[in-house]
Amino acid sequence: MENNHRDDLDRMIDAALPAYSDAEPLAGLEQRVLSRIEIAGSASRRRVWLPWAIAASIVMAAAVSTIALRTERRTSPQIAVVTRAPELPKAPPIQQVRQVSTQRPRRPSPKALPKQERFPAISPITSQERALLALVTQHPAEARQAFADLQKRNSAPIEIQAIQIRPLLSDGVQ
Amino acid sequence: MAKQEHAAACDDSFTALVTRQARFAFRVAYSILRNSHDAEDVVQETFLKIYRARNWTSMANERAFLARVVWRTAVDRLPKVPMEPADSEIASTGANPEQSAISGDWTATVHRLMDALPEDLRQTLALHTVEDLSSVEIAGLMGISEGTVRSRLMRARQTLKQKLAAVMAGRHGK
After folding, report:
1. Domains of chain B: residue spans and CATH
2. Model ipTM?
3. Between chains, do B44 and A32 touch, taking CB under 8 Å as contact?
4. Which of B27, B87, B157 sits opposite A21 (nearest CB)?
């Protein structure tokens, strides 16, 4: 009785076991597998070029930016056209704080003069000096006398005459 | 030119492999996952791996090799939480073995009881249900000894019998 029961159980299990994995895939499994592999293959082929494409784009971007920077330096500065901003309503007067700039205004540095062979340079004789030289040459005695008088006059004390203030005259009408 | 011919020949041999073994791979995956969609995903992933590795021409035993890759991929996909009911059972039977037994669907009852087995016993027994997979092949693909496979199969059957007997006793008691 016991053995029969066990045989029944074995039969039931044996009958049920093959069905445990007996499942059929949806039709076209092979095609789906192959198409997925094809897609994955083409994607991987595309991915081979990806690093090169990225590197090329980086190089291109660097080249373009370098060229742009150089061109910008060469071009003259452009005058910006600034449109006048619309007037705002007048604000209440604010005490203005005078700002003193600490920076000194720049002065243009003077241009260096050409270096002279002799300093100070000999200036040409004026016409008066030329006339004096001619007088000394022609009349040396008189010139010497005049020079002595000049020295004497310079060394003599200065005489200042006393100031005389006359009283005011009244016409008698006061 | 020779390279292209070689590639074409490889593609042809791979297409032949897919056509030959896709359904077998599906059954192996289904026996582990008990879900058609997941099983198909595993099959596609498996063939993609093999295609990328380019090692299908050097396989000594393509069925064993394929079963091993499918089993590993399927095990990686197994949820950490207890498995959901299989596709076939959702439509045909109730939610637990007792309800299946009451409805007289002993196949579904056995499948339910198998799902409740410890994972190592369940996987071994499930692979055993796949067409023509011998204990040696199961041992090879699971990376265990043949003796361990036989031991697991025996324990799995014993557990199934005990549980089935309990279910039947409960049904007859009612």
Report:
1. 2-77 (1.10.1740.10), 90-173 (1.10.10.10)
2. 0.73
3. yes
4. B27
